[in-house]
Design a protein that fits this description.
149 residues; mainly beta; two-stranded antiparallel sheet; 0% helix
């Protein structure tokens, strides 16, 4: 589910939520009812932006705040019923929320934007497959400068 608003008095909002229940309902290899790997049950995101509307130097100034939530999920390998004393196990990975903030300024054809990602310096992991468990990036500052022809 996604929600997006038009700009109202300088504010705009974008948000989304997803619920995903993925588990084995029938299997002759894996435990019925066990979760499929890498899939969180809940994810959500929300962004709020403000653009200054007045005239003068503040016109062209904008700010944004974005939050991203990824629910608990499992990594590792699903225990196999076909292997005696199988050592494959699912590993719970806790939920995390990441917060990003940005500020930008545009004047005529010139614009500059700075962003701080992972403001709270949260440590968690992205899980892609059996051999890919990667930490999310720590707090980071980035900036862009652009000129439109």
């Amino acid at each position: 589910m996604d929600l997006k608003t038009k700009q109202l008095s300088g504010f705009s909002f974008l948000g989304g939520y997803s619920y995903n229940l993925t588990k084995y309902t029938a299997s002759n290899i894996y435990i019925v009812g066990s979760l499929l790997r890498y899939n969180p049950n809940h994810t959500a995101n929300g962004s709020i932006y403000y653009s200054f509307q007045r005239t003068g130097w503040a016109k062209g100034l904008n700010m944004g705040l974005t939050a991203f939530y990824m629910g608990q999920r499992v990594a590792g390998r699903s225990t196999r019923l076909t292997v005696n004393s199988d050592t494959y196990q699912l590993i719970p990975v806790p939920a995390f929320t990441q917060l990003d903030a940005s500020v930008g300024y545009s004047l005529d054809r010139f614009s500059v934007r700075a962003k701080v990602s992972n403001v709270l310096n949260v440590l968690s992991y992205q899980i892609h497959d059996d051999n890919s468990v990667n930490p999310i990036a720590p707090r980071m500052l980035s900036a862009t400068v652009s000129y439109r022809w």
